[in-house]
Design a protein that fits this description.
- InterPro entries: COX15/CtaA_fam (IPR003780), COX15/CtaA_HemeA_synthase (IPR050450).
- Pathway: Porphyrin-containing compound metabolism.
- It is found in: Membrane.
- It comes from Aquipuribacter nitratireducens.
- This protein is an all-alpha fold.
- The protein has 2 domains: about 140 residues, no CATH class; about 160 residues.
- It is about 70% helix and about 0% strand.
- The protein has a two-stranded antiparallel sheet.
Length: about 325
């Protein structure tokens, strides 16, 4: 059966990929809403304006109401992808159904949080929470896709415990970097609405420097992890994903540096948001790649081999 061998039908994989793309895509389109100052194009929720769920001509805000309303409609697409993912996991990969349930629940929570964001006048705290929840959903969706074809045996590390701890620290710093990034965004010029620009009362240069220092710490930890992986002769999958993460990190850092010195042009800010999602996916790939799940038949042999002293370092 598929659940025992780690294989699932191709259409299941395709739906899980679509789910991940949707979770990333809604972050990018949400950023476009903010960057075009369309965040209050629909000033209420769940209706667009009192008495109408769709924009009306009397709003006289140009395309802004339609941009915001279009992003709301995309939430339904994301929800359908999450629902389809959960249904297929229950049928073909029941061991992973919890991931699908988490994505569906988080997507529903995003719809509610989006409404709260509108009702609070795009307060940067709720905007930040909106983005961070999306980052979490991207991470869960990525892990789900990466584990979709795993076997059903127990997962075991392919590197020493010290490198697993170092990778855990990397994840913590990555999360802190994303949080600081939302503080930078909440302090900068793109509030999401040109008429009511609510921002954090912080010095933009200071928070930008703190965000940059977190990135430097992240790169330092990643370089240390890479050195460790090569020193212990880690599997190619693990080292390859670490190098991929380094490439994504450098590209994202370069984009952030350029957008800062150019005064935060909208196109680069949007690209930076996409890069943040790709960074989350790359971190998830590295974390998953440091462990392997063997077939159940092989896993049953591990305790016996351990007793014979055949598994060095296990």
């Amino acid at each position: 059966m598929p659940a025992a061998t780690g294989r699932v039908p191709r259409f299941v994989t395709a739906v899980v990929v679509v789910n991940l793309v949707c979770q990333v895509g809604i972050v990018v389109t949400g950023g476009l809403v903010r960057l075009t100052a369309s965040g209050l194009g629909c000033p209420t929720w769940p209706e667009c304006v009192p008495g109408s769920v769709v924009p009306v001509e009397e709003q006289a805000l140009g395309l802004r109401p339609y941009i915001e309303f279009g992003n709301r409609l995309l939430t339904f697409v994301v929800g359908l992808a999450a629902l389809a993912t959960l249904a297929l996991l229950v049928r073909y990969r029941r061991r992973l159904w919890g991931y699908g349930a988490a994505v569906l629940a988080g997507t529903a929570g995003q719809a509610v949080l989006g409404g709260i964001t509108v009702l609070t006048g795009l307060h940067p705290t709720t905007v930040a929470a909106h983005f961070l929840l999306s980052g979490l959903l991207v991470a869960v969706s990525a892990v789900l896709l990466l584990r979709l074809h795993e076997h059903d045996g127990p997962r075991r590390p392919v590197v020493p415990r010290a490198l697993l701890v170092l990778c855990g620290g990397l994840v913590v710093v990555a999360a802190a970097t994303l949080v600081l990034g939302t503080v930078v965004t909440g302090t900068g010029p793109h509030s999401g609405d040109s008429e009511v620009p609510v921002r954090f009362d912080l010095d933009y240069r200071t928070v930008a420097v703190l965000h940059a220092e977190a990135v430097v710490l992240f790169v330092g930890l990643l370089l240390g992890l890479l050195a460790g992986l090569h020193a212990v002769g880690a599997p190619r999958r693990a080292t390859g994903r670490a190098w991929l993460l380094l490439g994504v990190t450098l590209a994202q850092g370069g984009t952030g540096w350029v957008q800062y010195w150019l005064g935060l042009p909208r196109a680069l800010v949007s690209l930076h948001m996409l890069g943040a999602c790709l960074l989350v996916v790359a971190v998830a790939a590295l974390v998953v790649g440091l462990r392997v799940r063997a077939p159940a038949a092989q896993a049953a042999e591990v305790p016996q081999a351990r007793a014979r002293g055949e598994l060095v370092g296990s």
